[in-house]
């Protein structure tokens, strides 16, 4: 069984366990959200050992070179030493909530004004961080030409982030965002390409 060394402790990975599952089983608290290798919230850095290639899917080449990987999909074949990701790996931008409007009974429109440049393409998503460290991904529902970043957030009963955003967060409050993330966007270099758009979740934002 491969062993994971983290913060001076060494743990044995069971069966098909990911690095995230192995460390959580030992009581280590780590950030995570999608747990399927999409949002990059669980990113960690390997300081020794060989990473499975799949554990670095979707990461920028500079992060791959520096040994960053996604703990939720990293099922190591060999021993690894790992640390938390540096803040610089996924730089955050402060953003002010400038509008919060219900769209229907369960979904709100949230408009954010980033305090510095936040370039993105329609189809991408961002990670939103609460000041308690909780992080969740949201599709960007605005256009890059607009002077705000719009999210459409569905209220999930008991949801730690959606509950806070829908019920507590106020216009004027500041959150942190990182991104944009995601490769699922239209390329205008090939205007004849076919598009398959699937509206899941709130339905419209990612389309
Ligand atoms: C790439 C990406 C894009 C996303 N875009 C959007 C978006 O545009 N708008 C949006 O509202 N959400 C979006 N999500 C989902 C979002 O990131 C959160 O998962 C969601 O807001 C719930 O988080 P929470 O902290 O409120 O719930 P948690 O505290 O994490 O969960 C509370 C409970 O609700 C359950 N739960 C979590 N999510 C759902 C769900 N969707 N339906 C039913 N039960 C659920 C959990 O299993 C748990 O039991 C996206 C996720 C990803 C990965
Ligand atoms: S928790 Fe989303 S990539 Fe690992």
Assign the structural class, choosing from mainly alpha, mainly beta, alpha/beta, alpha+beta, or little secondary structure: mainly beta
Tell me which ligands are bound. flavin-adenine dinucleotide, FE2/S2 (inorganic) cluster
- Distance separating the two termini: 43 Å
Main β-sheet: number of strands, strand sense, barrel status?
6 strands, antiparallel
Average predicted local confidence, pLDDT? 93
The number of distinct β-strands equals: 11
Percent helix, as a range, is under 10%
The helix count comes to: 3
Poorly predicted sequence stretches spanning 5 or more consecutive residues: none
Strand content: 25-35%
Order of strands across the main sheet: 9-8-11-6-7-10
Shape: globular
Q: In sequence order, what are the helices and strands, one letter per element?
A: EEHEHEEEEEEEHE
Mind telling me the C-alpha Rg?
A: 18 Å
Write up this protein.
With 207 residues, this protein is mainly beta. 10% of the residues lie in helices and 31% in strands. It has 3 helices and 11 strands. The chain has helices at residues 19-25, 61-65, 160-167, and strands spanning 3-6, 9-12, 43-48, 68-70, 80-84, 92-102, 107-114, 125-129, 135-139, 149-154, 174-181. The chain has a 6-stranded antiparallel sheet. Strands 2-1-5-3-4 form a 5-stranded mixed sheet. Residues 33-34, 38-39, 125, 136-139, 152-154, 156, 158-163, 201-202, 205 line the site of flavin-adenine dinucleotide.
